[in-house]
């Protein structure tokens, strides 16, 4: 069945259930409802200053490359900015890409392989679980899914220890977990954190990449 494909969204393995990986429509809606408070606009806006700071760093890099008359890989820099912005919204911290101006620990390249891999692997879920997405293999953290998960869990861990964290997405989810432990497990929160980093970063970096590509091809479409 094609809908089985969605089970690939249990990252890094089948124990980490997310709304996207839940096949039963009623159960999926219930799960989504528990996580929905994290996406409230008024709370997301609390990270606006940090998003502005990341965009300022992006503009600084653009200035540096322009002054040096060197070509800049805009797509990569947009991705660094969006990974960091997603991190700020989810767990009050940037992952450090745009400040460093490069792919720290190869995480972005890793995410690209993860996308390719997920596109295909979902059609062979039984094989995926047998060979890759099982606790034995993922605990080694060698595969793309394990890497994304490990990076997200490190950030989640730091966030929990930091009293200066904002009331971010994770704060909402931890509150639901504390109030309704029977409905949401801590592992569910970990799973949602990892998939939301993936869901938020790639989608958001596609937007400026596409907009820039369109404007470069037909400058008349640029906003006034
Ligand atoms: C241009 C930007 C975006 C596009 C086009 C987009 C697209 C989508 C689509 C089509 C779905 C539904 C998938 C399905 O059920 O088959 C979805 C779900 C989701 N997206 Fe996005 N998305 C974007 C940005 C984001 C961002 C910024 C985040 C988080 C920071 C995010 C997190 C999620 C999550 C958590 C779900 C699952 C929600 C649930 O089922 O309860 N997305 N997105």
From TrEMBL:
Transmembrane segments: 123-143
Entry keyword Transmembrane: yes
Keyword terms of this UniProt record: Membrane, Transmembrane, Transmembrane helix
Domain of life: Eukaryota
Protein name, as recorded: Uncharacterized protein
Lineage: Eukaryota, Fungi, Dikarya, Ascomycota, Pezizomycotina
């Amino acid at each position: 069945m094609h809908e089985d494909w969605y089970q690939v969204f249990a990252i890094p393995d089948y124990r980490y259930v997310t709304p996207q990986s839940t096949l039963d429509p009623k159960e999926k809606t219930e799960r989504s409802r528990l996580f929905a408070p994290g996406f409230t606009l008024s709370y997301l806006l609390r990270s606006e200053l940090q998003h502005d700071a990341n965009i300022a760093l992006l503009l600084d890099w653009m200035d540096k490359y322009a002054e040096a008359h060197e070509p800049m890989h805009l797509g990569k820099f947009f991705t660094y900015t969006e990974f960091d912005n997603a991190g700020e919204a989810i767990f009050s911290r940037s992952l450090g890409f745009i400040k460093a101006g490069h792919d720290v620990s190869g995480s972005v390249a890793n995410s690209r392989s993860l996308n390719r891999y997920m596109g295909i692997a979902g059609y062979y879920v039984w094989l995926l679980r047998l060979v890759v997405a099982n606790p034995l293999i993922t605990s080694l953290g060698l595969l793309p899914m394990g890497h994304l998960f490990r990076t997200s869990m490190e950030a989640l861990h730091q966030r929990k220890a930091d009293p200066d964290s904002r009331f971010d997405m994770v704060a909402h989810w931890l509150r639901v977990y504390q109030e309704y432990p029977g409905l949401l497990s801590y592992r569910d929160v970990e799973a949602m954190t990892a998939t939301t980093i993936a869901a938020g970063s790639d989608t958001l970096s596609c937007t400026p990449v596409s907009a820039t590509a369109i404007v470069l091809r037909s400058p008349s479409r640029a906003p006034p």
